[in-house]
Structures are given as structure tokens and as C-alpha cells.
Design brief:
The chain is mainly α. It is 49% helix and 0% strand. The chain contains two helices and no strands. The chain is globular.
Length: 55
């Protein structure tokens, strides 16, 4: 999946929370492909705090 597609899906999920919906989202993939960066950008766009936990 391309970063633009991931960003679009995450934006839709953030917006659905406004209407009382909550869908858990989990991203996984190889290290260094930009998962945390995409999440961070979407969180900033929606003024939502982000906690980055690396397991």
C-alpha cells in the first residue's frame, strides 16, 4: 500500500471518531519504511497527540 493510501485511510478513521465510531488500526511492516512518520503527519493534521511506542 502506498503512503498516500495509508494517510487517506487514517484520515477517514480519525474523522469517523467524531461520529462515535472507533476502529482500531494497526500498521506493521519492515523498519524504516515511514509508518511512524505517516501516523505523525495525520495526527498533526487532526490536532491529536501521538505516543510512539516501539516494541
Amino acid at each position: 500500500m502506498r503512503p498516500e493510501q495509508v494517510s487517506k485511510i487514517l484520515t477517514q478513521e480519525f474523522e469517523s471518531v467524531i461520529h462515535g465510531h472507533h476502529t482500531p488500526v494497526m500498521l506493521w511492516g519492515a523498519p524504516g519504511i515511514g509508518k511512524s512518520q505517516i501516523i505523525s503527519q495525520v495526527a498533526v493534521e487532526h490536532n491529536v497527540p501521538m505516543i510512539d511506542i516501539r516494541l
